[in-house]
Design brief:
There is one protein chain. By secondary structure, the chain is α/β, with parallel strands linked by helices. The chain has one domain: Rossmann fold (3-Layer(aba) Sandwich), CATH 3.40.50. It is 37% helix and 25% strand. It contains 9 helices and 10 strands. It has helices spanning 46-53, 78-82, 100-110, 116-129, 145-157, 175-190, 202-208, 226-232, 236-245, and strands spanning 6-17, 20-31, 35-39, 61-66, 69-70, 85-88, 163-167, 195-198, 211-216, 219-225. It has a 6-stranded mixed beta sheet, with helices on both faces. Strands 2-1-4-5 form a 4-stranded antiparallel beta sheet, with helices on one face. The longest helix is centred in the last third of the chain and has 16 residues, at 175-190. The protein is globular, with a radius of gyration of 18 Å. Its main location: membrane. Keywords: Amino-acid transport, ATP-binding, Cell inner membrane, Cell membrane, Membrane, Nucleotide-binding, Transport. GO terms for molecular function: ABC-type amino acid transporter activity; ATP binding; ATP hydrolysis activity.
Length: 248
């Protein structure tokens, strides 16, 4: 049973692509202010699971409840729910034809109904927060990958989300750019942002995660406090995964 304070509650979720069963009886939760890292080998269902949380991927069985709202209920306004759950993707997904300021103000104005002045004030605050205030009028193509990902985080935060989802946010970056993105995420964690993060960055997981969810072949194999997972993983699959990813 998930605690009453769960912001994200995943309950027995199944998903199929045709006959391919990609999520199998997945259940976990993320409490308010908690950071949960989802890891596992490629093809284990991690990204699919996190995308079901804001209905970017539909599921066929089970339910997901976000801040008391069931994604499975026909009456649920999924667009409104998505606006309350920030999502940061592997490949940034910025609007290439808009400068950074407009990337951060567009959804604020259209979805949240903020006036231009308030939206721009919020955008400036967030660009400063991620160390990019001097680049406000540049276009995404003028930035490095790490800078673009920091803009993507700022854009998600501009919607005042109740939780943030990260789908392998550093996997498309050159190694020297990874830390600048992780540093922003660590700061968010310190500020108490509720976060669900799909990543192979186990140093990040050790540093800030409260729990680690390990997946293999569409199933949640382990769901443990971080220190327990790293010091005494229960499953052979998790031990294999850790031995490969921590071999340095």
């Amino acid at each position: 049973m998930s605690p009453d304070q769960a912001v994200i509650d995943i309950r027995g979720v199944h998903k199929w692509y045709g006959s391919h069963h990609v999520l199998k009886q997945c259940s976990t939760h993320v409490n308010k202010g908690e950071i949960v890292v989802v890891c596992g080998p490629s093809g284990s269902g991690k990204s699919t699971l996190i995308k079901t949380v804001n209905a970017l991927e539909p599921f066929q069985k089970g339910d997901i409840v976000v801040d008391g709202t069931s994604l499975g209920a026909k009456s649920t306004n999924l667009s409104r729910l998505r606006s309350r759950v920030g999502m940061v993707f592997q490949h940034f997904e910025l609007f290439a034809h808009l400068d950074l300021m407009r990337n951060l103000t567009l959804a604020q104005r259209i979805v949240l109904g903020r006036d231009e002045d308030r939206a721009r004030t919020k955008a400036r605050e967030l660009l400063d927060r991620v160390g990019l205030s001097a680049h406000a009028h540049k276009y995404p193509s003028q930035l490095s990958g790490g800078q673009q990902q920091r803009v993507a985080i700022a854009r998600a935060l501009s919607m005042d989300p109740l939780a943030m989802l990260f789908d392998e946010p550093t996997s498309a970056l050159d190694p020297e750019m990874v830390n600048e993105v992780l540093d922003v995420m660590v700061e968010l964690a310190r500020e108490g942002m509720t976060m669900m993060v799909v990543t192979h960055e186990m140093g990040f997981a050790k540093r800030v995660a409260h729990r680690v969810v390990f997946m293999e072949d569409g199933e949640i194999i382990e769901d443990s406090p971080t220190d327990v997972f790293f010091q005494n993983a229960a499953s052979a699959a998790a031990k294999r995964f850790l031995s490969k990813i921590l071999h340095h």
